[in-house]
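[stage:ingest] chain + small molecule (magnesium ion)
[stage:ingest] validated
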Amino acid sequence: MTFLSLKTADLQGKRVFVRVDFNVPMQDGAITDDTRLRAAIPTIQLLIEKGAKVILAAHFDRPKGKVVPTMSLAPIAPALAALLDRQVAFATDCVGPVAEAVVAEMKSGDVLLLENTRFQPGEEKNDPELAKGFARLADVYVNDAFSAAHRAHASTEGLAHLLPAYPGLSMAHELDYLDRALGNPTHPVMAVVGGAKVSSKIDLLQNLVSRVDILAVGGGMANTFLAARGAHVGKSLCEHDLLDTARAIEALAAANKCQILLPSDVVVAEAFAAHAPHRTCEVGDVKDQEMILDAGPKSVAALAAALETAKTLVWNGPLGAFELPPFDIGTMEAARTAAALAHSGRLVAVAGGGDTVAALNQAVVADDFTFVSTAGGAFLEWMEGKALPGVEALKHPS
Ligand code: ADP
Ligand code: MG
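[stage:predict] done
[stage:export] tokens:
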């Protein structure tokens, strides 16, 4: 199974339906972060250069199949026009006679943005009739929205089966790096998984222990693993009902020859607050009234030593309560170590997850990582080893 290449496609005069992620954060009608718009620019530029008619489709927020005026994509058109330095037309519907009439007027190189696909009740239901309606607008389908690829919706999945389907440049880029991190990585592969809870990442941990050589567990979820090994964790965030789950993951790791690395020393405090009085202690020395809020220096050094031996790193989840200084130190130190190794070409370092991206930005190292995914849910499902419907639908037998 392979993907068709957009770069070599002949698209002169063709109508190209491009599924993008324009679900940008907005406040009072203004875009507060245009990262997602900028991510789509290379694909749009390439299509313009190829003489295609570029029809952009995206969802915005959660209108749940109804027209919700505050969730219109209309304000995106001028912002995109400014980034592209050319006109971007807007169609007040994403399908049907209104959209068809606007598309019929398009010339090669024109760019059109369709209204929110989720205004249609059929979008999230992956209604074949809606997909057919989209297909009437175009000759070719491009999906450049990896972050929406874990959903089988009409514009992300159904339509891909009705037209020649290509990954966009940003989708292809993301798939390439994710493949280098977990699909076909250079071993030894190390995973760092942190964050709040084991319960939200059971599938992810189970998938990783069968694929990586070392799994470092950190953050709040490490407390559950420590407790499962018999450690006293005091008032720490800990899922005491999941001790058996933690033990099962450890057993699966052992069966797959995956080494699990847990913190040996920790930073503890009596309050979950920035600058709360704190001390560093061995994992076995946590007192009843204390909670673990960060990895200690020995733990961070062990993690750094393991990173030195790895060729590939995949990271999701902070090692401590990084929003509350000084409990960010463990995460910041580990992030800097990984970034330095990646920067010097000794490590392929890939990371993703909402709080993880925030932590890497806080450490000012995101640029040094080989790849940082902002795809959120799609990234996590990919780490869980799940097939993403929006990606599967782009595959061609070769
Ligand atoms: P991501 O969004 O990257 O997938 P998560 O949402 O799973 O990450 O976890 C992030 C949260 O975990 C952060 O809010 C952080 O404060 C919290 N966290 C990490 N370590 C601890 C800890 N020891 N105790 C309590 N919360 C923690
Ligand atoms: Mg999170």
